[in-house]
Specification:
Blueprint (H helix, E strand, L loop, with lengths): L8 H15 L9 H11 L2 H7 L18 H13 E5 L5 E7 L2 H15 L4 E7 L4 E8 L2 H11 L21 H15 E4 L4 E6 L2 H13 L7 E3 L6 E5 L2 H12 L7 H4 L6
Antiparallel strand pairs: 1-2, 2-4, 3-4, 5-6, 6-8, 7-8
């Protein structure tokens, strides 16, 4: 739709309503650049323009961060590093994303985000595969929180699988926070194998696994060598002796509030 520069305020409001009927939803400034230009010219902001057209304007949420970081925060950090992502687009808009294919895990992550940041995260559902299995993308739209995670915990935005490291802060925190972080890492990218009777943590970054090995050692859990998978650019760390598996299980689930039930249930098999 091409808009004339001679449009009045009233005509502009009429046009945006017509556009909404065609789209069957309220237009956004992203898909209506001309309307966005005129909204700033005539109304000062996009929000003022939308309100003038009698549309509901989504309330902007601002996540809060507690000065005292809890075990639950470090658990979420483990999930983000292994099975999450921080995105930044050309307009420098940021999102913190978490992924899962299990409804109960989606609910857990939403509750955890609400508890930690007083923020109602959004969910986008995509279906894939022959059985159209849903994949849930849970995201927080916040430049403030993204910058905090990038600066304070060295989590890079964009592709990170081959360069990620354990945040330095983990080596200067208490054992309870470390155990919560390890639980998040195992829930996000770990495998509890009944076949090989071990826990394996995979990563594209060997440095990350070396860091994990140090963290485990600091809590009294010994792990095996880090080996490269055949024909894959992935490294794997194993924890396999009965003594270390029992010790690891006791430590990461001690007083744990949040965890993936499907992962915890597999421990009985090993």
């Amino acid at each position: 739709m091409t808009l004339s520069r001679k449009l009045t305020k009233e005509e502009l409001v009429f046009r945006i309503k017509e556009q909404a009927k065609k789209l069957n939803k309220r237009p956004t400034k992203r898909n209506s650049p001309q309307f966005y230009y005129f909204s700033r010219k005539y109304f000062g902001t996009w929000g003022n323009f939308i309100r003038a057209a009698d549309f509901d304007l989504k309330k902007i949420q601002k996540p809060t961060i507690s000065k005292k970081l809890t075990n639950d925060f470090f658990y979420l950090l483990g999930l983000l590093i292994t099975d999450g992502h921080i995105s930044k687009d050309k307009l420098k808009r940021c999102k913190i994303l978490f992924f899962t294919s299990y409804p109960e895990e989606k609910t857990l992550i939403l509750k955890l985000i609400k508890n930690l940041f007083n923020y109602n995260a959004s969910v986008r559902t995509k279906k894939y595969g022959f059985n159209k299995r849903p994949n849930y993308e849970i995201y927080i739209s916040s430049k403030f929180l993204a910058k905090y995670l990038i600066k304070k915990f060295q989590i890079p935005s964009g592709a990170k699988s081959h360069i990620i490291r354990v945040p330095k802060r983990l080596f200067n925190t208490n054992k309870s926070n470390i155990n919560a972080f390890i639980r998040g890492v195992i829930d996000g990218d770990g495998t509890i194998s009944s076949k090989t009777k071990c826990v394996r943590i995979a990563s594209g970054s060997i440095k990350f696994l070396k860091d994990i090995k140090k963290l485990l050692s600091s809590t009294g859990v010994s792990s095996g060598s880090i080996v490269k998978e055949k024909n894959r650019n992935t490294w794997v760390l194993h924890i396999s002796t009965v003594q270390n598996l029992r010790r690891l299980q006791d430590k990461i689930y001690n007083k744990a509030t949040f965890f993936y039930p499907r992962k915890k249930s597999r421990w009985k098999d090993i």
